[in-house]
Specification:
By secondary structure, the chain is an alpha+beta fold. The protein is built from 12 helices and 23 strands. The chain has a 5-stranded mixed beta sheet with strand order 9-17-12-13-14. A hairpin with a 5-residue loop joins strand 3 and strand 4. The two termini are 21 Å apart.
Protein backbone atom coordinates (compact mmCIF):
# COMPACT_ATOMS: atom_id res chain seq x y z
CA UNK A 1 0.00 0.00 0.00
CA UNK A 2 1.37 3.44 -0.93
CA UNK A 3 1.53 6.32 1.50
CA UNK A 4 -1.16 8.08 -0.57
CA UNK A 5 -3.46 5.14 -0.22
CA UNK A 6 -2.84 5.01 3.52
CA UNK A 7 -3.55 8.74 3.80
CA UNK A 8 -6.78 8.43 1.81
CA UNK A 9 -7.92 5.54 3.97
CA UNK A 10 -7.24 7.44 7.18
CA UNK A 11 -9.03 10.50 5.83
CA UNK A 12 -12.11 8.41 4.95
CA UNK A 13 -12.05 7.05 8.46
CA UNK A 14 -11.95 10.57 9.88
CA UNK A 15 -14.85 11.68 7.68
CA UNK A 16 -17.00 8.73 8.75
CA UNK A 17 -16.07 9.25 12.39
CA UNK A 18 -17.00 12.94 12.15
CA UNK A 19 -20.37 12.03 10.64
CA UNK A 20 -20.94 9.42 13.37
CA UNK A 21 -20.08 11.99 16.03
CA UNK A 22 -22.67 14.34 14.54
CA UNK A 23 -25.31 11.58 14.74
CA UNK A 24 -24.38 10.74 18.33
CA UNK A 25 -24.68 14.43 19.18
CA UNK A 26 -28.10 14.55 17.48
CA UNK A 27 -29.24 11.41 19.32
CA UNK A 28 -28.22 12.79 22.70
CA UNK A 29 -29.77 16.19 22.01
CA UNK A 30 -33.08 14.58 21.01
CA UNK A 31 -33.18 11.92 23.71
CA UNK A 32 -36.40 13.41 25.11
CA UNK A 33 -37.90 14.61 21.83
CA UNK A 34 -41.28 12.91 21.13
CA UNK A 35 -41.21 10.75 18.02
CA UNK A 36 -37.45 10.90 17.57
CA UNK A 37 -35.92 7.66 16.28
CA UNK A 38 -32.29 6.86 17.07
CA UNK A 39 -30.00 7.29 14.05
CA UNK A 40 -26.87 5.34 13.13
CA UNK A 41 -24.52 5.65 10.19
CA UNK A 42 -24.66 3.10 7.39
CA UNK A 43 -20.97 2.38 6.56
CA UNK A 44 -19.66 0.35 3.62
CA UNK A 45 -16.15 -0.69 2.60
CA UNK A 46 -14.53 0.96 -0.43
CA UNK A 47 -11.50 -0.37 -2.33
CA UNK A 48 -8.34 1.77 -2.19
CA UNK A 49 -5.64 0.52 -4.58
CA UNK A 50 -4.55 -3.09 -4.66
CA UNK A 51 -3.84 -3.62 -0.99
CA UNK A 52 -6.12 -1.44 1.10
CA UNK A 53 -9.72 -0.52 1.65
CA UNK A 54 -11.39 2.65 2.88
CA UNK A 55 -14.76 3.29 4.49
CA UNK A 56 -17.64 5.23 2.94
CA UNK A 57 -20.98 6.59 4.15
CA UNK A 58 -24.02 5.03 2.51
CA UNK A 59 -26.85 6.89 4.21
CA UNK A 60 -28.36 7.01 7.68
CA UNK A 61 -30.19 4.17 9.40
CA UNK A 62 -33.30 4.80 11.49
CA UNK A 63 -33.27 2.10 14.16
CA UNK A 64 -36.95 1.35 13.67
CA UNK A 65 -38.88 -1.90 14.04
CA UNK A 66 -41.66 -1.36 11.48
CA UNK A 67 -43.67 -4.38 12.59
CA UNK A 68 -43.66 -3.08 16.15
CA UNK A 69 -44.57 0.38 14.87
CA UNK A 70 -47.61 -1.07 13.06
CA UNK A 71 -48.72 -2.84 16.25
CA UNK A 72 -48.36 0.37 18.24
CA UNK A 73 -50.51 2.30 15.79
CA UNK A 74 -53.22 -0.36 15.92
CA UNK A 75 -53.20 -0.34 19.71
CA UNK A 76 -53.09 3.46 19.77
CA UNK A 77 -56.39 3.53 17.89
CA UNK A 78 -57.89 1.03 20.32
CA UNK A 79 -56.54 2.83 23.38
CA UNK A 80 -57.83 6.21 22.17
CA UNK A 81 -61.27 4.70 21.55
CA UNK A 82 -61.34 3.06 24.97
CA UNK A 83 -60.06 6.16 26.77
CA UNK A 84 -62.70 8.48 25.28
CA UNK A 85 -65.51 6.05 26.08
CA UNK A 86 -64.26 5.50 29.63
CA UNK A 87 -64.08 9.26 30.24
CA UNK A 88 -67.56 9.94 28.90
CA UNK A 89 -69.22 7.02 30.68
CA UNK A 90 -67.57 8.09 33.94
CA UNK A 91 -69.03 11.56 33.35
CA UNK A 92 -72.40 9.96 32.65
CA UNK A 93 -72.15 8.22 36.01
CA UNK A 94 -71.62 11.64 37.57
CA UNK A 95 -74.80 12.86 35.84
CA UNK A 96 -76.77 9.97 37.34
CA UNK A 97 -75.08 10.37 40.71
CA UNK A 98 -74.23 7.85 43.40
CA UNK A 99 -77.24 5.58 44.05
CA UNK A 100 -76.73 5.94 47.81
CA UNK A 101 -76.64 9.73 47.81
CA UNK A 102 -79.11 12.58 47.45
CA UNK A 103 -79.69 14.32 44.15
CA UNK A 104 -80.41 11.20 42.09
CA UNK A 105 -83.50 9.99 40.26
CA UNK A 106 -83.86 7.07 42.67
CA UNK A 107 -83.60 9.38 45.67
CA UNK A 108 -86.18 11.80 44.24
CA UNK A 109 -88.51 8.91 43.38
CA UNK A 110 -88.25 7.48 46.91
CA UNK A 111 -89.04 10.91 48.38
CA UNK A 112 -92.14 11.09 46.19
CA UNK A 113 -93.41 7.69 47.35
CA UNK A 114 -92.70 8.69 50.96
CA UNK A 115 -94.70 11.88 50.46
CA UNK A 116 -97.62 9.93 48.97
CA UNK A 117 -97.52 7.50 51.91
CA UNK A 118 -97.74 10.51 54.22
CA UNK A 119 -100.72 11.80 52.25
CA UNK A 120 -102.57 8.49 52.61
CA UNK A 121 -101.95 8.68 56.35
CA UNK A 122 -103.14 12.30 56.60
CA UNK A 123 -105.37 13.00 53.57
CA UNK A 124 -106.82 16.18 55.09
CA UNK A 125 -103.41 17.69 55.75
CA UNK A 126 -102.68 20.67 53.49
CA UNK A 127 -98.96 20.28 54.11
CA UNK A 128 -99.10 16.60 53.09
CA UNK A 129 -100.81 17.53 49.83
CA UNK A 130 -98.29 20.27 49.13
CA UNK A 131 -95.53 17.82 50.07
CA UNK A 132 -96.62 15.42 47.31
CA UNK A 133 -96.66 18.22 44.73
CA UNK A 134 -93.25 19.49 45.85
CA UNK A 135 -91.76 15.98 45.78
CA UNK A 136 -93.18 15.45 42.28
CA UNK A 137 -91.63 18.75 41.22
CA UNK A 138 -88.25 17.69 42.61
CA UNK A 139 -88.41 14.41 40.66
CA UNK A 140 -89.37 16.22 37.46
CA UNK A 141 -86.51 18.67 37.93
CA UNK A 142 -84.09 15.80 38.54
CA UNK A 143 -85.20 14.20 35.26
CA UNK A 144 -84.82 17.57 33.51
CA UNK A 145 -81.29 17.99 34.90
CA UNK A 146 -80.30 14.45 33.95
CA UNK A 147 -81.49 15.05 30.40
CA UNK A 148 -79.48 18.25 30.23
CA UNK A 149 -76.40 16.43 31.47
CA UNK A 150 -76.75 13.67 28.86
CA UNK A 151 -77.31 16.15 26.03
CA UNK A 152 -74.30 18.20 27.16
CA UNK A 153 -72.19 15.06 26.82
CA UNK A 154 -73.60 14.45 23.34
CA UNK A 155 -72.82 18.06 22.40
CA UNK A 156 -69.27 17.62 23.74
CA UNK A 157 -68.90 14.52 21.56
CA UNK A 158 -70.07 16.56 18.56
CA UNK A 159 -67.46 19.20 19.40
CA UNK A 160 -64.84 16.47 19.86
CA UNK A 161 -65.57 15.19 16.35
CA UNK A 162 -65.18 18.69 14.91
CA UNK A 163 -61.87 19.29 16.69
CA UNK A 164 -60.57 15.87 15.62
CA UNK A 165 -61.41 16.59 11.98
CA UNK A 166 -59.33 19.78 12.12
CA UNK A 167 -56.38 17.85 13.54
CA UNK A 168 -56.80 15.11 10.93
CA UNK A 169 -56.85 17.54 7.99
CA UNK A 170 -53.64 19.20 9.17
CA UNK A 171 -51.95 15.80 9.62
CA UNK A 172 -53.04 14.61 6.16
CA UNK A 173 -51.78 17.82 4.57
CA UNK A 174 -48.37 17.47 6.25
CA UNK A 175 -48.06 13.78 5.31
CA UNK A 176 -48.72 14.60 1.64
CA UNK A 177 -46.22 17.48 1.79
CA UNK A 178 -43.47 15.27 3.20
CA UNK A 179 -44.28 12.53 0.69
CA UNK A 180 -43.63 15.00 -2.11
CA UNK A 181 -40.35 16.15 -0.54
CA UNK A 182 -39.20 12.54 -0.62
CA UNK A 183 -40.16 12.05 -4.27
CA UNK A 184 -36.70 12.41 -5.83
CA UNK A 185 -34.61 11.18 -2.96
CA UNK A 186 -33.05 7.79 -3.62
CA UNK A 187 -31.51 7.18 -0.22
CA UNK A 188 -31.93 8.11 3.41
CA UNK A 189 -29.62 10.87 4.58
CA UNK A 190 -29.84 12.80 7.83
CA UNK A 191 -32.30 15.32 6.40
CA UNK A 192 -34.51 12.57 4.99
CA UNK A 193 -34.44 10.68 8.27
CA UNK A 194 -35.60 13.83 10.04
CA UNK A 195 -38.48 14.16 7.57
CA UNK A 196 -39.46 10.55 8.19
CA UNK A 197 -39.54 11.22 11.94
CA UNK A 198 -41.86 14.18 11.35
CA UNK A 199 -44.12 12.17 9.06
CA UNK A 200 -44.36 9.32 11.55
CA UNK A 201 -45.59 11.76 14.17
CA UNK A 202 -48.40 12.90 11.87
CA UNK A 203 -49.26 9.28 11.07
CA UNK A 204 -49.34 8.58 14.80
CA UNK A 205 -51.77 11.50 15.20
CA UNK A 206 -54.01 9.89 12.59
CA UNK A 207 -53.84 6.53 14.41
CA UNK A 208 -55.20 8.24 17.53
CA UNK A 209 -58.16 9.53 15.54
CA UNK A 210 -59.06 6.48 13.44
CA UNK A 211 -57.98 2.99 12.47
CA UNK A 212 -55.47 3.24 9.61
CA UNK A 213 -53.35 1.02 7.39
CA UNK A 214 -49.99 2.32 6.10
CA UNK A 215 -48.40 1.20 2.81
CA UNK A 216 -44.83 2.35 1.97
CA UNK A 217 -43.26 2.37 -1.53
CA UNK A 218 -39.61 2.21 -2.61
CA UNK A 219 -39.25 6.01 -2.42
CA UNK A 220 -40.16 6.00 1.28
CA UNK A 221 -43.54 7.54 0.42
CA UNK A 222 -46.59 6.29 2.31
CA UNK A 223 -50.25 5.85 1.44
CA UNK A 224 -52.78 5.80 4.27
CA UNK A 225 -56.01 3.84 4.13
CA UNK A 226 -58.72 3.29 6.69
CA UNK A 227 -59.09 -0.37 7.61
CA UNK A 228 -62.34 -0.30 5.64
CA UNK A 229 -60.28 0.44 2.52
CA UNK A 230 -60.77 4.19 1.98
CA UNK A 231 -57.57 5.98 0.84
CA UNK A 232 -57.11 9.20 2.76
CA UNK A 233 -53.64 10.40 1.71
CA UNK A 234 -50.77 9.64 -0.65
CA UNK A 235 -48.90 12.33 -2.56
CA UNK A 236 -52.21 14.20 -2.38
CA UNK A 237 -54.38 14.54 0.69
CA UNK A 238 -58.10 13.99 0.82
CA UNK A 239 -60.02 16.45 2.95
CA UNK A 240 -62.41 15.53 5.74
CA UNK A 241 -65.39 17.77 6.42
CA UNK A 242 -67.87 17.86 9.28
CA UNK A 243 -71.06 19.87 9.66
CA UNK A 244 -71.55 20.32 13.43
CA UNK A 245 -74.97 21.24 14.76
CA UNK A 246 -75.38 24.23 17.02
CA UNK A 247 -77.65 22.56 19.55
CA UNK A 248 -77.96 18.89 20.49
CA UNK A 249 -81.27 17.76 21.98
CA UNK A 250 -82.89 14.34 22.50
CA UNK A 251 -84.66 14.84 19.17
CA UNK A 252 -81.47 15.54 17.20
CA UNK A 253 -80.46 12.08 16.07
CA UNK A 254 -78.15 10.70 13.40
CA UNK A 255 -79.74 8.94 10.46
CA UNK A 256 -77.91 7.59 7.39
CA UNK A 257 -80.73 9.06 5.31
CA UNK A 258 -79.67 12.72 4.75
CA UNK A 259 -83.33 13.78 4.60
CA UNK A 260 -83.87 12.50 8.16
CA UNK A 261 -80.48 13.26 9.67
CA UNK A 262 -80.11 16.27 11.95
CA UNK A 263 -76.62 15.68 13.34
CA UNK A 264 -73.21 16.24 11.80
CA UNK A 265 -71.69 13.61 9.54
CA UNK A 266 -68.10 13.11 8.36
CA UNK A 267 -67.55 13.36 4.61
CA UNK A 268 -64.28 12.69 2.80
CA UNK A 269 -63.68 14.76 -0.33
CA UNK A 270 -61.16 13.14 -2.68
CA UNK A 271 -58.47 15.26 -4.44
CA UNK A 272 -59.80 14.60 -7.94
CA UNK A 273 -63.49 14.83 -7.17
CA UNK A 274 -66.08 12.68 -5.49
CA UNK A 275 -67.00 12.32 -1.85
CA UNK A 276 -67.90 9.60 0.63
CA UNK A 277 -69.96 9.60 3.83
CA UNK A 278 -67.69 7.91 6.36
CA UNK A 279 -70.35 7.67 9.08
CA UNK A 280 -73.13 6.15 6.99
CA UNK A 281 -70.71 3.57 5.58
CA UNK A 282 -69.08 2.78 8.94
CA UNK A 283 -65.67 3.60 7.48
CA UNK A 284 -64.26 4.66 10.88
CA UNK A 285 -64.16 1.77 13.31
CA UNK A 286 -61.66 2.75 15.99
CA UNK A 287 -59.85 5.74 17.46
CA UNK A 288 -61.25 8.90 19.01
CA UNK A 289 -63.59 9.62 16.12
CA UNK A 290 -65.24 6.20 16.33
CA UNK A 291 -65.66 6.65 20.10
CA UNK A 292 -67.24 10.09 19.74
CA UNK A 293 -69.63 8.77 17.10
CA UNK A 294 -70.56 5.71 19.17
CA UNK A 295 -71.26 7.85 22.23
CA UNK A 296 -73.19 10.54 20.38
CA UNK A 297 -75.32 8.13 18.35
CA UNK A 298 -75.62 5.06 20.56
CA UNK A 299 -74.56 4.95 24.21
CA UNK A 300 -75.78 8.42 25.17
CA UNK A 301 -78.93 8.09 23.04
CA UNK A 302 -79.67 4.86 24.91
CA UNK A 303 -79.09 6.63 28.23
CA UNK A 304 -81.62 9.28 27.22
CA UNK A 305 -84.07 6.58 26.14
CA UNK A 306 -83.80 5.03 29.59
CA UNK A 307 -84.84 8.12 31.51
CA UNK A 308 -87.45 8.99 28.86
CA UNK A 309 -88.92 5.51 29.32
CA UNK A 310 -88.98 5.98 33.09
CA UNK A 311 -90.73 9.33 32.72
CA UNK A 312 -93.24 7.89 30.23
CA UNK A 313 -93.99 4.79 32.30
CA UNK A 314 -94.47 6.86 35.45
CA UNK A 315 -96.73 9.41 33.73
CA UNK A 316 -98.85 6.74 32.01
CA UNK A 317 -99.09 4.62 35.16
CA UNK A 318 -100.91 7.46 36.91
CA UNK A 319 -102.98 8.89 34.06
CA UNK A 320 -103.85 6.00 31.71
CA UNK A 321 -107.17 4.33 32.45
CA UNK A 322 -108.17 1.05 30.80
CA UNK A 323 -111.91 0.38 30.46
CA UNK A 324 -113.32 -2.96 29.34
CA UNK A 325 -115.73 -3.02 26.42
CA UNK A 326 -119.46 -3.57 26.93
CA UNK A 327 -120.99 -6.67 25.37
CA UNK A 328 -122.77 -5.85 22.10
CA UNK A 329 -126.57 -5.72 22.42
CA UNK A 330 -128.82 -8.62 21.48
CA UNK A 331 -129.81 -6.73 18.33
CA UNK A 332 -126.39 -7.62 16.94
CA UNK A 333 -127.08 -11.36 17.04
CA UNK A 334 -126.11 -13.84 15.62
CA UNK A 335 -122.85 -11.86 15.74
CA UNK A 336 -121.24 -11.26 19.12
CA UNK A 337 -118.68 -8.75 20.27
CA UNK A 338 -118.19 -5.52 22.21
CA UNK A 339 -118.90 -1.81 22.13
CA UNK A 340 -115.98 0.50 22.93
CA UNK A 341 -116.48 4.13 23.92
CA UNK A 342 -113.77 6.09 22.11
CA UNK A 343 -114.85 9.49 23.44
CA UNK A 344 -111.78 11.21 24.84
CA UNK A 345 -109.38 8.85 23.05
CA UNK A 346 -106.27 10.92 22.33
CA UNK A 347 -103.54 10.48 19.76
CA UNK A 348 -101.29 7.63 20.90
CA UNK A 349 -104.04 5.99 22.99
CA UNK A 350 -104.88 2.36 22.20
CA UNK A 351 -107.92 0.12 21.84
CA UNK A 352 -107.22 -3.58 22.47
CA UNK A 353 -109.15 -6.43 20.85
CA UNK A 354 -108.56 -10.13 21.37
CA UNK A 355 -110.12 -12.57 18.97
CA UNK A 356 -109.62 -16.21 18.06
CA UNK A 357 -109.81 -17.79 14.64
CA UNK A 358 -111.32 -21.17 15.45
CA UNK A 359 -110.28 -22.66 12.12
CA UNK A 360 -106.56 -22.00 12.63
CA UNK A 361 -106.74 -22.04 16.42
CA UNK A 362 -104.71 -18.83 16.56
CA UNK A 363 -105.58 -16.11 19.08
CA UNK A 364 -104.86 -12.58 17.88
CA UNK A 365 -104.15 -9.58 20.09
CA UNK A 366 -104.92 -6.45 18.11
CA UNK A 367 -103.75 -3.01 19.24
CA UNK A 368 -105.53 -0.18 17.44
CA UNK A 369 -103.45 2.99 17.90
CA UNK A 370 -105.00 6.39 17.33
CA UNK A 371 -102.92 8.39 14.87
CA UNK A 372 -103.63 11.94 13.73
CA UNK A 373 -100.71 12.15 11.28
CA UNK A 374 -101.33 9.72 8.39
CA UNK A 375 -97.79 10.23 7.04
CA UNK A 376 -96.42 7.79 9.64
CA UNK A 377 -98.71 4.92 8.63
CA UNK A 378 -98.48 1.96 8.62
CA UNK A 379 -97.12 1.38 12.12
CA UNK A 380 -94.67 -1.35 13.03
CA UNK A 381 -95.68 -4.15 15.42
CA UNK A 382 -92.88 -2.82 17.63
CA UNK A 383 -94.82 0.41 18.21
CA UNK A 384 -96.24 -0.98 21.45
CA UNK A 385 -94.34 -2.83 24.16
CA UNK A 386 -96.48 -5.96 23.85
CA UNK A 387 -94.32 -8.54 22.03
CA UNK A 388 -97.37 -10.59 21.06
CA UNK A 389 -99.73 -8.00 19.60
CA UNK A 390 -100.49 -6.92 16.06
CA UNK A 391 -100.41 -3.13 15.76
CA UNK A 392 -102.81 -1.29 13.52
CA UNK A 393 -102.41 2.47 13.24
CA UNK A 394 -105.65 4.24 12.35
CA UNK A 395 -105.93 7.84 11.20
CA UNK A 396 -108.63 9.47 13.36
CA UNK A 397 -108.45 12.86 11.70
CA UNK A 398 -111.39 11.99 9.41
CA UNK A 399 -113.86 11.07 12.15
CA UNK A 400 -115.55 7.81 13.15
CA UNK A 401 -116.85 6.94 9.68
CA UNK A 402 -113.29 7.04 8.35
CA UNK A 403 -112.06 5.01 11.33
CA UNK A 404 -114.61 2.25 10.67
CA UNK A 405 -113.79 2.21 6.97
CA UNK A 406 -110.06 1.87 7.66
CA UNK A 407 -110.63 -0.95 10.16
CA UNK A 408 -112.91 -2.93 7.87
CA UNK A 409 -110.50 -2.42 4.97
CA UNK A 410 -107.60 -3.67 7.09
CA UNK A 411 -109.37 -6.69 8.62
CA UNK A 412 -112.46 -7.25 6.54
CA UNK A 413 -110.69 -9.49 4.08
CA UNK A 414 -110.17 -12.07 6.81
CA UNK A 415 -113.91 -12.01 7.61
CA UNK A 416 -112.94 -12.57 11.27
CA UNK A 417 -114.02 -9.13 12.48
CA UNK A 418 -116.53 -6.50 11.48
CA UNK A 419 -116.51 -2.90 12.70
CA UNK A 420 -119.31 -0.35 12.84
CA UNK A 421 -120.27 2.91 14.51
CA UNK A 422 -123.79 2.53 15.91
CA UNK A 423 -123.80 6.00 17.46
CA UNK A 424 -121.60 8.86 18.64
CA UNK A 425 -118.06 7.74 19.51
CA UNK A 426 -118.94 4.08 19.95
CA UNK A 427 -116.90 1.55 18.05
CA UNK A 428 -118.61 -1.81 17.73
CA UNK A 429 -116.49 -4.85 16.95
CA UNK A 430 -118.26 -8.14 16.11
CA UNK A 431 -117.24 -11.58 14.98
CA UNK A 432 -118.34 -12.96 11.60
CA UNK A 433 -121.51 -14.52 13.01
CA UNK A 434 -120.73 -17.93 11.56
CA UNK A 435 -120.65 -20.79 14.08
CA UNK A 436 -117.17 -21.96 15.12
CA UNK A 437 -115.30 -19.57 12.80
CA UNK A 438 -114.14 -16.63 14.94
CA UNK A 439 -114.87 -15.25 18.39
CA UNK A 440 -114.13 -11.84 19.88
CA UNK A 441 -113.03 -12.78 23.36
CA UNK A 442 -112.09 -9.41 24.89
CA UNK A 443 -111.98 -5.72 24.12
CA UNK A 444 -110.86 -2.65 26.05
CA UNK A 445 -109.73 0.90 25.49
CA UNK A 446 -106.92 2.77 27.26
CA UNK A 447 -107.31 6.55 27.51
CA UNK A 448 -105.24 9.26 29.11
CA UNK A 449 -107.27 10.97 31.84
CA UNK A 450 -106.60 14.71 31.68
CA UNK A 451 -109.23 16.04 34.09
CA UNK A 452 -108.25 16.17 37.76
CA UNK A 453 -111.87 15.61 38.83
CA UNK A 454 -113.03 12.97 36.35
CA UNK A 455 -114.42 10.80 39.12
CA UNK A 456 -111.54 8.39 38.60
CA UNK A 457 -108.57 7.88 40.91
CA UNK A 458 -106.31 8.28 37.87
CA UNK A 459 -104.35 11.51 38.01
CA UNK A 460 -102.38 13.43 35.42
CA UNK A 461 -99.71 14.27 37.98
CA UNK A 462 -97.08 14.87 35.32
CA UNK A 463 -97.44 16.56 31.94
CA UNK A 464 -95.28 17.02 28.89
CA UNK A 465 -94.49 20.70 29.12
CA UNK A 466 -98.09 21.43 30.04
CA UNK A 467 -99.85 18.95 27.72
CA UNK A 468 -100.92 15.42 28.50
CA UNK A 469 -98.48 12.63 27.77
CA UNK A 470 -100.38 10.20 25.55
CA UNK A 471 -97.55 8.46 23.69
CA UNK A 472 -98.41 10.38 20.50
CA UNK A 473 -96.64 9.47 17.27
CA UNK A 474 -95.92 12.01 14.52
CA UNK A 475 -93.59 12.40 11.57
CA UNK A 476 -91.12 14.16 13.89
CA UNK A 477 -90.98 11.12 16.17
CA UNK A 478 -92.45 9.75 19.35
CA UNK A 479 -93.70 12.02 22.13
CA UNK A 480 -91.65 9.86 24.49
CA UNK A 481 -88.35 11.03 22.97
CA UNK A 482 -86.94 13.73 25.24
CA UNK A 483 -89.90 13.53 27.64
CA UNK A 484 -87.59 13.47 30.68
CA UNK A 485 -86.29 16.90 29.66
CA UNK A 486 -89.78 18.37 29.31
CA UNK A 487 -91.69 16.63 32.11
CA UNK A 488 -93.21 18.85 34.77
CA UNK A 489 -95.94 18.77 37.40
CA UNK A 490 -99.48 19.46 36.17
CA UNK A 491 -99.98 23.20 36.51
CA UNK A 492 -103.53 22.71 37.82
CA UNK A 493 -102.12 20.74 40.76
CA UNK A 494 -99.64 23.48 41.53
CA UNK A 495 -102.59 25.84 41.83
CA UNK A 496 -104.76 23.41 43.77
CA UNK A 497 -102.85 20.63 45.62
CA UNK A 498 -106.15 19.38 47.09
CA UNK A 499 -106.69 17.49 43.83
CA UNK A 500 -104.13 14.98 45.05
CA UNK A 501 -107.07 13.70 47.15
CA UNK A 502 -110.24 15.18 45.63
CA UNK A 503 -111.00 13.25 42.43
CA UNK A 504 -114.68 14.17 42.10
CA UNK A 505 -116.65 17.35 42.65
CA UNK A 506 -120.07 15.89 41.83
CA UNK A 507 -120.44 14.21 44.18
CA UNK A 508 -117.60 15.74 46.18
CA UNK A 509 -114.96 13.30 47.33
CA UNK A 510 -115.64 12.42 50.95
CA UNK A 511 -113.37 13.81 53.63
CA UNK A 512 -110.61 11.38 54.49
CA UNK A 513 -111.05 9.42 51.25
CA UNK A 514 -107.63 8.03 50.29
CA UNK A 515 -108.74 6.35 47.06
CA UNK A 516 -106.56 8.57 44.86
CA UNK A 517 -103.47 8.64 47.09
CA UNK A 518 -103.68 4.87 47.58
CA UNK A 519 -103.95 4.41 43.82
CA UNK A 520 -100.94 6.65 43.20
CA UNK A 521 -98.89 4.80 45.80
CA UNK A 522 -99.83 1.42 44.37
CA UNK A 523 -98.97 2.47 40.82
CA UNK A 524 -95.63 3.93 41.87
CA UNK A 525 -94.51 1.17 44.19
CA UNK A 526 -96.07 -2.12 43.11
CA UNK A 527 -97.41 -1.55 39.58
CA UNK A 528 -95.58 -3.68 37.02
CA UNK A 529 -94.90 -2.27 33.54
CA UNK A 530 -93.12 -3.17 30.32
CA UNK A 531 -90.13 -1.11 29.16
CA UNK A 532 -88.85 -0.45 25.66
CA UNK A 533 -85.89 -2.54 24.41
CA UNK A 534 -84.52 0.74 22.97
CA UNK A 535 -83.27 1.37 26.49
CA UNK A 536 -80.85 -1.53 26.11
CA UNK A 537 -82.66 -3.43 28.84
CA UNK A 538 -84.64 -6.45 27.68
CA UNK A 539 -85.40 -7.39 24.09
CA UNK A 540 -88.25 -6.94 21.64
CA UNK A 541 -89.38 -10.52 22.22
CA UNK A 542 -88.96 -10.42 26.00
CA UNK A 543 -89.12 -6.80 27.18
CA UNK A 544 -88.03 -6.03 30.71
CA UNK A 545 -91.02 -6.00 33.06
CA UNK A 546 -91.04 -4.67 36.61
CA UNK A 547 -91.89 -1.82 38.93
CA UNK A 548 -90.67 1.71 38.35
CA UNK A 549 -88.09 1.32 41.12
CA UNK A 550 -86.92 -1.99 39.63
CA UNK A 551 -86.36 -0.29 36.29
CA UNK A 552 -84.57 2.68 37.86
CA UNK A 553 -82.17 0.39 39.69
CA UNK A 554 -81.65 -1.66 36.55
CA UNK A 555 -80.71 1.50 34.64
CA UNK A 556 -78.28 2.68 37.30
CA UNK A 557 -76.76 -0.80 37.57
CA UNK A 558 -76.40 -1.05 33.80
CA UNK A 559 -74.71 2.35 33.54
CA UNK A 560 -72.42 1.52 36.44
CA UNK A 561 -71.36 -1.74 34.83
CA UNK A 562 -70.83 -0.01 31.49
CA UNK A 563 -68.63 2.66 33.08
CA UNK A 564 -66.67 0.04 35.02
CA UNK A 565 -66.17 -2.14 31.95
CA UNK A 566 -65.08 0.86 29.89
CA UNK A 567 -62.55 1.85 32.56
CA UNK A 568 -61.15 -1.69 32.73
CA UNK A 569 -60.87 -1.84 28.94
CA UNK A 570 -59.12 1.52 28.85
CA UNK A 571 -56.68 0.39 31.55
CA UNK A 572 -56.01 -2.84 29.68
CA UNK A 573 -55.40 -1.02 26.41
CA UNK A 574 -53.07 1.38 28.18
CA UNK A 575 -51.03 -1.51 29.59
CA UNK A 576 -50.72 -3.11 26.14
CA UNK A 577 -49.78 0.19 24.53
CA UNK A 578 -47.21 1.02 27.21
CA UNK A 579 -45.65 -2.44 26.87
CA UNK A 580 -45.30 -2.01 23.12
CA UNK A 581 -44.01 1.52 23.53
CA UNK A 582 -41.36 0.35 25.98
CA UNK A 583 -40.25 -2.26 23.45
CA UNK A 584 -40.11 0.44 20.80
CA UNK A 585 -38.11 2.71 23.08
CA UNK A 586 -35.66 -0.11 23.75
CA UNK A 587 -34.97 -0.52 20.02
CA UNK A 588 -35.63 2.93 18.61
CA UNK A 589 -35.23 5.28 21.54
CA UNK A 590 -32.02 6.95 22.68
CA UNK A 591 -30.12 5.35 25.57
CA UNK A 592 -27.70 7.95 26.93
CA UNK A 593 -25.36 5.31 28.39
CA UNK A 594 -25.11 3.52 25.05
CA UNK A 595 -24.49 6.78 23.22
CA UNK A 596 -21.72 7.76 25.66
CA UNK A 597 -20.08 4.37 25.18
CA UNK A 598 -20.33 4.83 21.43
CA UNK A 599 -18.88 8.32 21.80
CA UNK A 600 -15.80 6.91 23.55
CA UNK A 601 -15.36 4.37 20.77
CA UNK A 602 -15.61 7.12 18.15
CA UNK A 603 -13.11 9.20 20.09
CA UNK A 604 -10.62 6.31 20.01
CA UNK A 605 -11.31 5.76 16.32
CA UNK A 606 -10.80 9.43 15.60
CA UNK A 607 -7.52 9.41 17.53
CA UNK A 608 -6.32 6.29 15.73
CA UNK A 609 -7.10 7.71 12.27
CA UNK A 610 -5.47 10.98 13.21
CA UNK A 611 -2.42 9.03 14.41
CA UNK A 612 -2.21 7.26 11.06
CA UNK A 613 -2.35 10.61 9.26
CA UNK A 614 0.34 12.01 11.54
CA UNK A 615 2.53 8.98 10.89
CA UNK A 616 2.05 9.28 7.11
CA UNK A 617 2.96 12.98 7.38
CA UNK A 618 6.16 12.09 9.25
CA UNK A 619 7.03 9.51 6.63
CA UNK A 620 6.48 12.04 3.82
CA UNK A 621 8.76 14.46 5.60
CA UNK A 622 11.47 11.79 5.89
CA UNK A 623 11.14 10.97 2.19
CA UNK A 624 11.31 14.61 1.20
CA UNK A 625 14.36 15.16 3.41
CA UNK A 626 16.08 12.09 1.91
CA UNK A 627 15.62 13.48 -1.57
Amino acid sequence: MSLGQALATAMSGLRVTQASLALVSSNVANAESPGYVRKTLNQITGVTGDFGSSVRINGVNRELDQYLQTQIRTETSGASYADVRATYLANLQSVYGNPDSAGTIEDAFNKLTTAVQGLSTSPDSASARIGVVNAAQALAQQLNATTQGIQNLRANAETGINDSINVANNALKQIALINNQLQNNGRTDAATASLLDQRDQYIDQMSQLMDIRVVTNNLNQVTLFTNSGVQIVGTEAARLSFNPQGTVTPNTLYDPDPAKNNLGTITIDFPHGGSYDMVATNAIRSGKLAAYLELRDNSLVKAQAQIDQFAAAMSSALSDQTTAGVAAPASALPQAGFDLDLAGLQTGNVAHITYKNNITGITHNLSIVRVDDPSILPLSNNTTLDPNDEVLGIDFSGGMASVVAQLNAALGASADLQFSNPSGSTLRVLDDGAPNRSDVTAASVTKTVSSLTSGSAHLSLFTDGGVSFTGALTASGSQQTGLAGRINVNGALLGDPSRTIVYSTNPLTAAGDTTRSDFILNQLMTGSYRYSPETGIGTTGTPFTGTLLNFTRQVISMQGEAASSAALLADGQEVVLNTLQNKMNATSGVNIDDEMAHLLALQNSYSANARVMATVKDMYEVLIAAM
